[in-house]
Write a structure and sequence with these properties.
Pfam families: Rieske. This protein is mainly beta and 117 residues long. The protein is built from one helix and eleven strands. The longest helix is centred in the first third of the chain and has 4 residues. The structure holds FE2/S2 (inorganic) cluster.
Length: 117
């Protein structure tokens, strides 16, 4: 892994490292963003949200990923993977979404940038 700055993002994985329906947690020290960021693989695409659930101290990278959403492992609030928008209680605040790009088979995270999907 390497951090080449915000203009090109952070290379967090290569395609195949994150299985379909799985996620990785990029630690806050690496994101430079104040929170860890979860990078998800769902239906052939990659998405990123702040890792800490907006409802409590749970890691969304450990949640259940399906149908474009992630379900929090603690109380089952769901968030849209594309936008971070909250889909159901008990969370009431959306998760911040970040841009992910796949370039030459590598997965790049752009912390703080709006997703383009
Ligand atoms: S901590 Fe995620 S729904 Fe409660």
């Amino acid at each position: 892994m390497s951090n080449t700055g915000t203009s090109t993002g952070i290379r967090v994985a290569v395609a195949g490292d994150i299985a379909e329906g799985e996620a990785i947690k990029v630690p806050a020290e690496q994101t430079g963003h104040g929170d860890a960021i979860a990078v998800f693989h769902d239906e052939g695409a990659y998405y990123a949200l702040d890792d800490t659930c907006t409802h409590g101290q749970a890691s969304l990278s450990e949640g259940w990923i399906e149908g474009g959403e992630v379900e929090c492992p603690l109380h089952s609030a769901r968030f849209c993977l594309k936008t971070g928008e909250v889909q159901c209680m008990p969370a009431t605040v959306g998760a911040r979404a970040h841009r992910v790009a796949v370039r030459d088979g590598e997965i790049w995270l752009h912390p703080g940038e709006e997703p383009t999907v």
